[in-house]
TrEMBL record:
Keyword Transmembrane helix: yes
Localisation: Endoplasmic reticulum membrane
Species the sequence originates in: Vigna radiata var. radiata
Membrane protein topology class: Multi-pass membrane protein
Protein name: 7-dehydrocholesterol reductase
Broad class of enzyme this protein falls into: oxidoreductase
Keyword Membrane included in the entry's annotation: yes
Cited Pfam families: ERG4_ERG24
GO MF terms held by the record: 7-dehydrocholesterol reductase activity
Residue spans crossing the bilayer: 21-43, 78-98, 119-138, 150-167, 206-226, 238-259, 271-289, 301-321
GO biological process, one term: cholesterol biosynthetic process
InterPro entries: ERG24_DHCR-like, Sterol_reductase_CS
């Protein structure tokens, strides 16, 4: 008998992955545990020397009241920083000159149109931030000093934001790619709209995922570096390696931002708590946490080790980029690009949309995509390891992001496989026969 499953509501091309029990349990746990986790992570990194056992002992002694005592209340300063930053990024998204880019055609036949100005927004943001510091107008250490309050304000503010998204999904969806699963928790958690917009041009997911979330990663990486400099009069080589790698990674992201608009986050995952709260709160806190740790732990690696880690990290970021580039060039040229100097090997697949139309698509089966079906996750995880390892091994917590990312990407590979199987049917099976490993060639 076919197991009944629940999960993300259809964006039209396949949906369910886990059993109802697992789905509800994971949704409820993430909704309730992520907010306090963000606060505990910040507290442990900044006030408990990065030591999980120190925080644990504190909580054991002081109980729930102790936890409430360390949870910073959102302050006016925190809200001011968030609102000014958010408005600045929204203005750049709307106003900077941009190339018009078309997203993938959705299962209901809708094709989103974007303004691609990510690199310009990234450069303007970082130059403005550094200039504000350099000319003494705003000191980034203020952000670090109010980090707990900022996370607290983000936690509550983003929750309200997701409620508004839910209401908008019901009352005023922006496109045909919208709908309810019939369950309020699923609708809130997974979202209702695939492409919510304000007006014709302001794309909400581009704002939450790219211009707020990913941009804050770069801004906070610089903030941590500046904080260490202002505290110690110099920046340790471990902090330099960490900041350089995180900035290279985020630069790569904005360089490739229009490509990101073709990925699962944008083209398949709807705008709800999972994606939007994740990008507004989890990215600025958890993704940046190795740098947050290093502020008060200026490890000295020595030039040789520092350069080795830096080069290994850059190589991983490059391979990850090249995997994405290879797939997108292959699709863009309709299978006519060269892959590792040769004509690509491919599967010509077809699938049926929700409106009953038959469409064709190509699956690349050579290059990185011939090693395993999600090989790009291997360099993604390794890159995160390399920007964390400058913290060395005194504490476990700086490695939380690497562990979280590994779990996230292994789950994502399964979700994507399931989705592609239901979309492409026998063609996906052909791909699995030809490329049997899901992530790690020869192992998994
Ligand atoms: P992608 O969306 O880029 O790739 C998966 C999609 O590609 C599939 O859904 C399918 O879509 C298509 N596809 C699958 N196999 C093939 C093939 N052989 N040939 C052509 N197309 C294929 O994946 P992700 O969104 O997961 O990853 C994008 C990037 O983002 C990666 O670099 C990843 O590492 C990174 N990432 C980072 C995360 C983080 O938190 N740091 C989290 C997630 C991703 P279709 O329906 O079009 O066929």
């Amino acid at each position: 008998m076919k197991k009944k499953t629940v999960g993300q509501p259809k964006s039209g091309d396949g949906d369910t992955v886990h059993s109802p029990l697992v789905t509800y349990a994971s949704m409820i746990s993430l909704l309730t545990l992520c907010p306090p986790f963000v606060i505990l992570l910040w507290y442990t990194m900044t006030a408990a020397d990065g030591s999980v056992s120190e925080t644990w002992n504190y909580l054991k002694q002081n109980g729930v009241q102790g936890f409430l005592d360390i949870w910073p209340r959102p302050t006016a300063t925190a809200y001011k920083i968030i609102v000014v930053y958010g408005l600045f990024e929204a203005a750049l998204q709307l106003l900077l000159p941009a190339k018009t880019v078309y997203g993938p055609i959705s299962p209901t036949g809708h094709q989103p149109v974007y303004k691609a100005n990510g690199v310009a927004a990234y450069l303007v943001t970082l130059i403005t931030y550094m200039a504000l510091w350099w000319f003494g107008i705003f000191n980034p250490t203020v952000v670090y000093d109010h980090l707990g309050e900022i996370y607290s304000a983000l936690i509550f503010g983003s929750f309200v934001f997701c409620i508004l998204l839910y209401i908008k999904g019901h009352l005023a969806p922006s496109s045909t790619d919208s709908g309810s699963s019939g369950n309020i928790i699923i609708d809130f958690y997974w979202g209702m709209e695939l492409y919510p917009r304000i007006g014709k041009y302001f794309d909400i997911k581009v704002f939450t995922n790219c211009r707020f979330g990913m941009m804050s990663w770069a801004v906070l990486a610089l903030t941590y570096c500046i904080k260490q400099y202002e505290e110690n009069g110099k920046v340790s080589d471990s902090m330099l390696v960490n900041t350089a790698l995180m900035l290279i990674y985020v630069t790569k992201f904005f360089w490739w931002e229009a490509g990101y608009w073709n990925t699962m986050d944008i083209a398949h995952d709807r705008a709800g708590f999972y994606i939007c709260w994740g990008c507004l709160v989890w990215v600025p806190s958890v993704y940046t946490s190795p740098g947050m740790y290093l502020v008060n732990h200026p490890v000295n690696l020595g030039i040789q080790l520092a350069i080795s880690i830096l080069l290994a990290g850059i190589l991983c970021i490059f391979i990850n980029y090249d995997c994405d580039r290879q797939r997108q060039e292959f699709r863009r040229t309709n299978g006519k690009s060269t892959v590792w100097g040769k004509a690509p090997s491919k599967i010509e697949a077809s699938y049926t949309t929700t409106t009953g139309e038959t469409k064709r698509s190509l699956l690349l089966t050579s290059g990185w995509w011939g090693l395993s079906r999600h090989f790009h996750y291997v360099p993604e995880i390794l890159a995160a390891f390399f920007w964390t390892v400058p913290a060395l091994f005194n504490h476990f917590l700086p490695y939380f992001y690497v562990i979280f990312l590994t779990i996230l990407l292994f789950d994502r590979a399964k979700r994507d496989d399931d989705r592609c199987r239901s979309k492409y049917g026998k063609y996906w099976k052909l791909y699995c026969d030809k490329v049997p490993y899901r992530i790690i060639p020869g192992i998994y």
